[in-house]
């Protein structure tokens, strides 16, 4: 009998982490690699936030905290939800975890029994189906289409729901596509969910502040207040505040669910780092003006990458409304042979070719349950993005033309 559980054997490692780790290994070997595989802003954490952490250390705030988070942070989260989302919570409806990722996992572990189903649109974040499986549930992907802007249609949601469905997981803005669900989109989905009162909504809003142009952010409990009693709204400071390594996420929802999530966390990580929590208080309560600066810089980078990629024959992408990813179709290049004679059968093959030939790390779309694409993160400097796109173009230009192959 092996040591590993059957449950774990069905879970795949994160492809985003795997590609980033491979890039780091190649870089350590002396190879020049530009990493566009990681969803991590290249900006530094704002000084006032870092100083709050230093002050907390000097004040001796280095002890265990409450499982759900320090009162000051939960109060700051209550104010944030009211101020920005018109959501009214009490502090006992708020829980803080080691990133939004842990809170998603806590919610699934706290609520799923064996065989319970969780529906979610694809392309999706790589961790969704694996988290669901680890929690004992059954992932039920709902395919979206490029021509619909990767937005899930209400009829497709209705068709996916069964008597075993426990959750709809919805990430907007979306990783990996950057799709943003408008208030109308959410209201249309809510109209379906009203026919299924036992289905809950897990709103993953981690990219909330990274929305561009005419697009406007909305979240389900705001768009459909009557569903708030069965909605968990998850967010965090990682992306908008350039605090990925601080590991602070927060969630607001019904007390019964939040208490259950705290039980899960109390028996696992106990709580997130006390110093990080005090930094997050400053992040939520302090000056917010830098968020606009970050967003403006990301928009410039987005437009740069979209333009450069669409000028590479065989690659194509639309302009995303949010997050900091471009989801690039590479279907036209699959089936082609590299200069060394290796055939590119899959998007993973193409991603590995770009790593080896162009020195650029991207993530294959199959990791997001969308074969035939690659995800490029534009959360890097303009200089790196220009160099990376030029290298990708050069690598693609080395393919034998169809006439030559014939």
- Largest sheet entry: 7 strands, mixed
What percentage of the residues does DSSP assign to strands (E)? 5-15%
**Low-confidence spans: pLDDT under 50, at least 5 residues?**
none
Distance between the termini: 53 Å
Helical content class = 40-55%
Give your account of this protein's structure.
- This protein has helices spanning 6-9, 15-28, 47-58, 71-85, 100-111, 127-134, 154-160, 183-193, 220-223, 255-266, 274-285, 289-310, 347-358, 382-397, 402-405; strands at residues 34-35, 94-97, 117-122, 138-143, 165-171, 200-204, 231-236, 249-252, 325-329, 360-361, 363-364, 373-377.
- By secondary structure, it is α/β, with parallel strands linked by helices.
- It folds into 2 domains: 6-44 and 290-397, Alpha-Beta Complex (Aspartate Aminotransferase, domain 1), CATH 3.90.1150.10; 48-287, Type I PLP-dependent aspartate aminotransferase-like (Major domain) (Aspartate Aminotransferase, domain 2), CATH 3.40.640.
- It has a 7-stranded mixed sheet with strand order 2-8-7-6-5-3-4, sandwiched between helices. It has a 3-stranded antiparallel sheet with strand order 9-12-11.
- Strand 5 (165-171), helix 8 (183-193) and strand 6 (200-204) form a beta-alpha-beta unit.
- The longest helix has 22 residues, at 289-310.
- The N and C termini lie far apart (53 Å).
- 49% of the residues are buried.
